[in-house]
Amino acid sequence: MAMATPKCRPVLILLLLAVSSCLPHVVTSLSFDYNFSAPGVLAGADLKYMNDSAPVLDRIDLTNLSRSWSTGRVAHGQAVRLWDDATGKAASFTTNFTFAVKSLNVTTSQGDGMAFFVGPYPPSMPTDASGGFLALFNNRGNPANTYFPPTVGVEFDTLRNVEWDPNDTISHLGLNVNDIRSRNYTALPDGSFNGAMSASVRYDAGTATLSATLRLDDMPELSSYTVSTNVDCRAAGLTQDAAVGFSAAIGDYVEQHQIFSWSFESTLTDDIMTSKRKETGLVAGLVSTGIFIFVAVAASLGYLQYLKRKGMHAQDAPQDSDVPLDQDMDDVFEKGAGPRRFSYDELSRATRGFSDEEKLGEGGFGAVYRGYLQEQGLHVAIKRISKTSSQGRREYVAEVTIIGRLRHRNLVLLVGWCHKADELLLVYELMTNGSLDEHLYSSTNILTWPTRYKIILGTGSALLYLHQEWEQCVVHRDIKPSNIMLDASFNPKLGDFGLARLVDHSRGGYTTMLAGTKGYMDPECAVTSRASAETDVYSFGIVLLEVACGRRPIAPLQEDENKVVLVQWIQKLYVGGTLLDAADTRLDGNFDAQEMERVLVVGLWCVHPDYGFRPSIRQAMSALHFEAPAPDLPPEMPVAMYAPPRGGHRSSYTSSNGSSSTGNRSSTSDRAEENRSSASANTKSARRPIATPTNQTLGTRTTE
């Protein structure tokens, strides 16, 4: 290809500048997304810590717990531009963050709280803002204070100060403008600020409106809380370039203030152009967009070809002996950010030579060990794939290439990986409370209903992300309580992606070959060997019923010791109008009846024999969040009679008059949304069961 001569380069530069000046001018003032639990993120984040705030392992601590009257701030190192004097345009912004406030007092008393703030840049620490001032504003009641920098804040106040806080609540979500007295607030139930939470703050420059939404993740039984008010950033005294960050303070009472993740984005649009320049810019923009689309399509096609060459496409997977290792595997694993490679020696030291004393559990896949990575100061769980596992390498590759690219607070975080000779090791964040099944069937510590409901919603949120919110649909294929891990606050995190496969975001997308655990597998999948998002929904439905009832999918009934199938037993109670009798008797009636009924009904909906009448995971979650009504289920479910596929995937449903209807996967999918949206199967309600699929035996994990 011909190269530009030195004489031509200035001309080319001027030409590029001329073309760029014709394009619509959009400036993103500030944009970042930090998940502090991911390796290396906290260390590389552009943050300024003030006073007692500090980075700690996988989070930011805003206050020092070793003493009372501690204050702290953390701010982003770059400024956000709130407006542009040249154009007169103002910036809108949205920020999302997850955090925790935890009382460490002998009594239930708390104090004082934390806040998100927008203030002067470069950021600084107020000199007299301890206790109830939340390190947000200097104390105006102190005559010695003469400097009160303009600040807009969203406060999460845990203690009522009678001098300025609302008199009708102890805790509140407030919006503050240059004053510790909230301009507007929403009262919260006492004790709400005690656990994990997530918040979203939005500023709309067009309407000069500041709004905040708070969700109490550790208390899913409570709804989200919102508050809004009018704020003019210029009128509030803020400068053109402002700092954004968090502040917190404690008084005599000690509480933790921790930040786990933080994203921020602001956009400032300059539309001051002549009509002629706008038209020229539009043409140039369309041309550049066309070029971009062409390049993107070409890159996508090239990537698909690459996947086909590597054998990673979501259809038939290769035999375990064909799975690449060593350099080929390294090339795949090390692309992009995320988990890192560890040396075998590092992991051996972390587990004290894979000592039996550090072993957390063992199964057909291998063993899991507790470990401590000294350099990172991180406690981890290390899975050592069994050398005798027939599917070991395939599951290892699936874990790294799939879960290593996923980021969601209800998914187990893959920290790293290692392969050396015949050793395959996976490093995860340590889940201190183990797996759900350990607690669900514990004879000593009974999971309370609020905790169970939180686990249900968190697991569903993870599945929603996998099925509909990531760039490709991830079919997990092994959803069950032993793969739902629990952190220190009993937040659920779905793990074990060894059987997971990628499929397209399209109707009828599926992966072939039998995989999963009997008892949680869709009966149709057990016959046809095809798994899809609908089969994951079936497994999720089984988990819902199991968590609500405290019974395994196939278990002895206490009264007569006969083996019963959980779904059939609950269906009979539903038909008889005694559905709440299915509730776990160990709860002793201590549960929310509406939530219990909703979980049981949605569980039955998810395990409908015809996947065309099952909900999508989004519809199931809407019902569980009480954003949509409960489905109207038929009094008797039709019983599917499956036949192995011959060229296409087919299943039939037998009715009471002996006739049968046969459906193809693609045609069933075409009517699925219509059936789901009505949440009923009235057209099949007259059918009576005359045959059942082969009974499944609990606990056996089947792989391809």
Automatic annotation (TrEMBL):
Location of the Protein kinase domain: 354-628
Pfam (any one): Pkinase
Signal peptide: 1-29
A GO CC term attached to the entry: plasma membrane
Membrane topology annotation: Single-pass type I membrane protein
Binding site for ATP: K383
Protein name: non-specific serine/threonine protein kinase
EC number assigned by the record: 2.7.11.1
Organism of derivation: Triticum aestivum (Wheat)
